[in-house]
Amino acid sequence: MKNRKVLLAAFGFALAAASVAPAANAADGEKVFKSVCFMCHQTGAGGAPVFGNKADWAPRIKQGKPTLYKHALGGFTGNNGTMPPRGGGSSLKDDEVKAAVDFMVAKAQ
């Protein structure tokens, strides 16, 4: 019985460890930007704030990262244009989208 409990505990820890994905980092944010986000944020298509343009980004940054994350993850339609959910990259993980937002914001400050 004792061995069974130890085995179940070990299995539980292994399962938990396998299901935890590493957090996305700045390099991941740049990679996501270059593969997905640039299509609109490089040119301003659809009203997207242009990458690195402080004037475009300032009012959005002022709203706070939780709002930017919400709009990037779930999509947003406003007076100035449309942001598709996950920037159109439907297979992107939440952490990848957030890392791309962080990358773009860092370049606009």
From TrEMBL:
Gene3D superfamilies in the cross-refs: Cytochrome c-like domain
An example molecular function term from Gene Ontology annotations: iron ion binding
Domain Cytochrome c: 24-108
Coiled-coil regions, chain positions: none
A Pfam family the protein falls into: Cytochrome_CBB3
Keyword Transport: yes
Signal peptide feature range: 1-26
Alphabetical UniProt keywords: Electron transport, Heme, Iron, Metal-binding, Signal, Transport
UniProt protein name: Cytochrome c5 family protein
Organism placement in taxonomy: Bacteria, Pseudomonadati, Pseudomonadota, Betaproteobacteria, Burkholderiales
